[in-house]
Design goal:
The protein is built from 16 helices and 24 strands. It is of the alpha/beta class.
Amino acid sequence: MILEKIVKEIEVLQTVGPVDVDIASLTLDSRSAEPGSLFFAIRGTGIDGHEFIDAAIERGAAAVMCEELPTNPDPRVTYVVVADSHRAMGEAAAAFHDHPSRKLKLIGVTGTNGKTTTATLLCDAMRALGHGAGLISTVDYRIGDTVLPSTHTTPDPLRLNAMLATMVERGCDCCFMEVSSHAIVQQRIAGLWFMGAAFSNITHEHLDYHGTFAAYIAAKKSFFDGLPKTAFAITNVDDRNGRVMVQNTKAKVRTVSLRAPADYRCKIVEQHFDGMLLAIDGTELWVCFTGRFNAYNLVTVYAALREMGIDKEDALRVISTLKPVSGRFETVRSAKGITAIVDYAHTPDALQNALDAIAEIRRQGQKIYTVVGCGGDRDTTKRPEMARIAAECSDFAILTSDNPRTEDPAEILAQMKAGLVAGHRAVGIIDRREAIGTAVAMAAAGDIILIAGKGHETYQIVGTETRHFDDREEVRKAFLNFDL
């Protein structure tokens, strides 16, 4: 594509050099630059891409997009100076790939908890209804039948637009993507055209990045503020910030609720560990999901399907066939009747939701054992709260490691224990495998073990090393070891 065509849709402060040069590829990594590349000099939290402009040019870059012109511009390339390289990169990537988001029904799902489940179930539902569908989520990326490993909840705009373009090429007509607060602030979704968006909830999370809860809310809200008037905006009005999210949007607002009047209502009629009977939009149906939080996910899926033009009967029918997402309230049962639940709950609210769901279902006499940890190099303020919730809502809590990363696991555990008070029955075991085994050894037939924090993950990050570790595998091994 000619550079002139790319930059005409971007707010450019200055160009130095010809704009009729051919651009063959886009990159933000100087090491990936090649003849014909457009290199984006991005200022990150630790690295400034402007320092690598010369390296990109030496590898053949034909143009550079930057916020600051070098002191001695290289006459071999064209420089495009912009106010915000992050936003400009998204807009340029969309233009380079001929705006693939405008050729798809692109739905963004944001919130603290429920994003992965909602986006994945929407993808599964549309595929079951005969549509070509794509998915961009924490667990994986899907382009029709092709499944790719996920690197970020929302990838950078170069990879994101490339994937959307491939979806179009392969016949997909819709795509469902998680939109993280980091991605919103970092302008990874700049240049995308959304048909609709959905808000699940917002609770304590990512304050290590955003600084304050108000800033976190503002980041999520800005996504809805930027929707076009042709889009729809689904919001959970049972969340205290549900209406705040959409108060300034130009999109058509649609509400979901389990408690209040709303455009799309859901009621839990009964629930068990293997599923729930729900009443959605006045019709009862059995689903293979458990927990109030999943009822919210499913009514949001229903609302999105209806707003996308799927009729009521088809939407309800396909929802009744959906299966839970990997590592989201996933049950593993022992031969002798112990139920282990593996869940991604890694925030106080998500952990509370999981334990509330268990409490609503368990029978008298069944004990709850919770194994939970907190990730290293992440928000430290939630650690004591996670421990408090685990201890208060369980018969016994085992505090352990999650992904300690470069932090001392013992220090993370000490910070978690600060949330415990007299009367809490809890113990700290740094080794996660040992912690799971201890919970299994303590449990009796009929008891319930919640293993929270990692869910679908098949690894554990200790220091800078990534090791294989799967909570589901570990609890199955423990069941066998104890002949349960």
